[in-house]
Amino acid sequence: MQDFDILVVGAGIVGIASAYHLQRNSPGKKVLVVERLGDVGQANTGRSNAMFRNTFTSVDNQTLASSAIDFYMHVQNDLGIDVGMDSIGYMWLMSEAQLSAAEGHIRRMVANGVEVKRYSEEELRRAIPGLETRQRSDDSRLMSLPDVAHGLFGPKCGRLAPEKLTGFYRDAFVEAGGKILFNQSARKLLVEPRDRIGIDGEPFVWQRSRVAGVELADGKEVRAGTTVVAAGAWNNKLTDPMGTDGHAKAKKRQLFAVPAGGVPLLGDLLFAKGFNPSGTLPFVILPKSGLFIKPVKESNEFWIGCEDEVNRPYMSYPDDDLEKFLAEPAYYENDIHQILKEYLPQFAGVRPSRMWAGLYSYNTLDNMPYVFPEEGLIVVGGDSGSGVMKGDSLGRLVDAVYRDGWDAEASLYGDVPYRASKLSFAHRDVEREDWVL
Ligand SMILES: Cc1cc2nc3c(=O)[nH]c(=O)nc-3n(C[C@H](O)[C@H](O)[C@H](O)COP(=O)(O)OP(=O)(O)OC[C@H]3O[C@@H](n4cnc5c(N)ncnc54)[C@H](O)[C@@H]3O)c2cc1C
Questions:
Q1: Atom 21 (ligand 1): residue with closest C-alpha?
Q2: What mean pLDDT do residues 215-231 have?
């Protein structure tokens, strides 16, 4: 196998966006992506809810997401490449107490240019068909379901098509001269002395060592000047064995597709008017357990999921095969459906027609992504459930670190400066994210 200047492991949104920016900004360099599946975006990126928002509590997250959203809009509107951007908006339904607790965050969002619009309970009842804002049933009391008193609407939020977005990056990367090796897994990172002296057992502790590429599952080696580990939930499997903490904690997340056909009130809900140009319900977050409802008009269904933190284990070394992580019908029935039918009774008795699961990759320190270099290595990940919407910004940061080192100042889309070291561990300087869905 020939040598490369840069090798990127993983072709999810983060890996393929990184490869694209690396190749574009270093046109003379040979860049290779190694991906164990058959195409880009087939793992967690393709299994995600594919929503985007700039309504984060962390100003850093607002910046990273906002710039990436602007780039995706630019691709669609200016370059004429459909990546499925559909600004349906996010509607956070909140109790009185939740809104008061969020006021500080909202003020800071507005100060940072994040547009939000408030809805009263009355406006919400008129706009969202069937919404029960007052929770008075025995079941509601048992579950401590709060009343809905307010709505916070984010218009620069919506949904995208991850297969189209990653397809855009793949095609542009290949057109710029990049190469992709699909169906090939990187088994381990190659660690070597910078200056080899030819004695068995190198590298010794007194030698300066570096990552020199990867060994593939078939035993072949791919050598590279810089190796970028963008393997998402599987980062630790490559970095930990060489003594570099991959900082990825995986957790299963599930989505349930519920058909809107056959129940007229569900159809009315799906196509609730007045929120967005698409004429659909926005992405709605209920005031309990982060339960969310995504309208998918093409397939006439809702995708429904929930914060799933308690009793759901973290995994440092998850199985490579995502098919082994199954969605659980009982989780829909006993957890999600119980809350859902109280706020939107038209869902009572309605069951999902399909369901699937994927992995969130958390950085449990602050729920914020990380990008950091070691000798011959750049590690990127920890996007904590919002990596699709920040993928472009993370790709630009990887490229900036490659070209200018750990303290590089990246230029995010829209000429937004962002210092890469803020997302490192040695010089970390980011605000914690509290609104993880
Ligand atoms: C149910 C669910 C809903 C979500 N909803 C959203 C959402 O609405 N919005 C949002 O922005 N994010 C969402 N996320 C999170 C989002 O999916 C991730 O943040 C994002 O996909 C991370 O991208 P990635 O490229 O790091 O990971 P991945 O897409 O998982 O890509 C990693 C790639 O690396 C490859 N790989 C791993 N190890 C190796 C190896 N050793 N050799 C070769 N290849 C390897 C994998 O095959 C994979 O293709 C959701 C996630 C889930 C599970």
A1: 45
A2: 97
